[in-house]
Amino acid sequence: MGLLMSQQIRPGERINIDALSRSLGVSVTPIRESLARLESEALVTKRPLAGYTATPLLTPEQFSDMYAVRLALEPLAARAAARHASDEKLAAIAAAVGSRRDTIAAGSDEHRVVAFEDARFHGAVAASAGNDFLRDSIQRLHPHLHLHRLYTNAQIAQKATYREHDAIIKALRRRDASSAEEAMRSHLEASLVRLGDVVREATNARSWL
To answer: What angle do CA 31, 35, 37 make, to 5 degrees?
Structure first.
């Protein structure tokens, strides 16, 4: 997954297992095992006689569908975390965000840091819900979202994202399950508007290439 996230393997690119084996200095067996795992997460696809290919970025329609699932699952996770998470887990959620919020620099790679912080935050909330099925379902969605953020250079509204995360954290610390659920829902709805526009613009730009 690291090569996909670092853009060393780009969406839609054919994956050469032998070349990866040589560049990474490992046998083809662990590479095939990793690709099989990524295939189960829909991050690569395998075709007979053609091998593996990195999955293309989601279409705007697929992106919207993904957010529909997030809106069904993540507010539920926030509600559960407010009720069941230990103080240590709540501290971990707070620690997952904001380490670079004072160094946001337009035109830099700062959006990459924010994207990965966002992944850690949502992953920490999901992990604190006390429901392994819910956690796994949520975490399977996030690589697709963050590939979009990385490839579309989505630096938009990073400060708004931090404010929304802070509202969720405050509700969790108060053990206010209803407020945590609503804060998460509001955050996701705002994120869909922000990133949905970027995804549509990026898709339109690629269609002209």
So the answer is: 120
C-alpha–C-alpha distance, residues 85 and 99, integer Å: 22
Q: Give CA–CA dist 158/115, Å, rounded.
A: 9
Domains: count for the chain: 2
In 3D space, the residue among 76, 161, 61, 60 whose CA is nearest the CA of residue 110 turns out to be 161
Looking at residue 99, the DSSP 8-state letter turns out to be: T
Task: Copy the structure tokens of residue 72.
Answer: 């069904």
The H or E element containing residue 52 is: strand 51-54
Same domain for 100 and 195: yes
DSSP letter for 97, please.
S
pTM across the whole model: 0.77
pLDDT tens per residue across span 123-146: 999 999 999 999 999 988 877 776
Residues 175 and 93 in one domain: yes
